[in-house]
Amino acid sequence: MAQLDATKWVNDYGDMLYRYAYPRVNDKEVAKDLVQDTFLAAWRNHDNFKGEISEKNWLFTILKNKIIDHYRKASTRLTEGLPDNTDDTYFDDAGHWAKQAGPNDWGTGLSETVERKEFYEILDKCRKKLKDIQSAVFTMKYLDGLDSEAICKELNITASNFWVLVHRAKLQLRACLERNWTTK
Amino acid sequence: MRITCREATEFIVKREEGKLTFKQRVQLWLHMGICGLCKLFAKQSKFISKMSSHLEGHLEESLTIEEKTQMIESLQKQ
């Protein structure tokens, strides 16, 4: 067995893994724990590491599985987490945009020249307000670029629940961005 | 058959993944013809999707020295 060097591992891969985990779980503590668990699992199973893929890719594979497990825990709470259409702040009884809830024109905000750093900070802040399962679905769809079928299978949810979750997540994010992002 | 803004916004989100039936596409097209708010929503929704896919590269997060030391110690205890 190759000599294992804990210090080298953590210094070489710690931040990389953390930067992958953090935006996917939206919680620094959870992200840190997942990275730590990844290192521990890799450490214990190092005998099974065949070197067919790089050590880095191997660690990422373990981390990805841990993130999926984390999402699955959220999806088992789906019944309580599914957004309730009767408590709808965005639309009125007739299904039209409620007063004050309709989109405002973001004007030049949509252009490429917008102040990006500020936008991403606000986007991240708004994203963190999404509920567990909504956040999982949103992350898999928009950060990982997975399609709905893959996400439904992974989280064991129905397509109709999936679209309710994505729809609500988009409405919520949009409203939050509009409130917090000052467009000139 | 006319759709509401609630339905239209759901269709808009689905359309980004190409998940609308022919009938739904027509319904959405008719709705968008008369609804400025949903048109704005469509533009902004697309923008959010695009920006989200780049979000990762814009976060400057890292572990603290203490957190790393802790991880190293827990590995060495194994």
Residues in β-strands, percent of chain B: under 5%
List the uncertain runs of chain A: none
The CATH architecture of the largest domain in chain A is Orthogonal Bundle
The chain pair forming the largest interface, with residue counts per chain, is: A-B, 54 and 40 residues
CATH superfamily of the largest domain in chain A: Winged helix-like DNA-binding domain superfamily/Winged helix DNA-binding domain
Number of domains of chain A: 2
CATH topology of the largest domain in chain A: Arc Repressor Mutant, subunit A
- C-alpha Rg of chain A, in Å? 20 Å
The average pLDDT of chain B is 92
Main β-sheet description of chain B: none
Strand percentage of chain A lies at: under 5%
Order of helices and strands of chain A: HHHHHHHH
Distance between the termini of chain B: 66 Å
Low-confidence stretches of chain B: none
Multimeric state:
heterodimer
Number of strands of chain A: 0
Count every beta strand of chain B, where a strand is a DSSP E run of 2 or more residues.
0
Which structural class fits the helix and strand makeup of chain A?
mainly alpha
Helix content of chain A: 55-70%
Q: Rg of chain B to the nearest angstrom?
A: 22 Å
Distance between the termini of chain A: 60 Å
Describe this structure in words.
In chain A, 64% of the residues lie in helices and 0% in strands. By secondary structure, chain A is mainly alpha-helical. Chain A is elongated and about 60 Å long. Chain A starts with 5 loop residues before the first helix and ends with a helix. The model of chain A has no long low-confidence stretch (mean pLDDT 85). By secondary structure, chain B is mostly helical. Chain B has 4 helices and no strands.
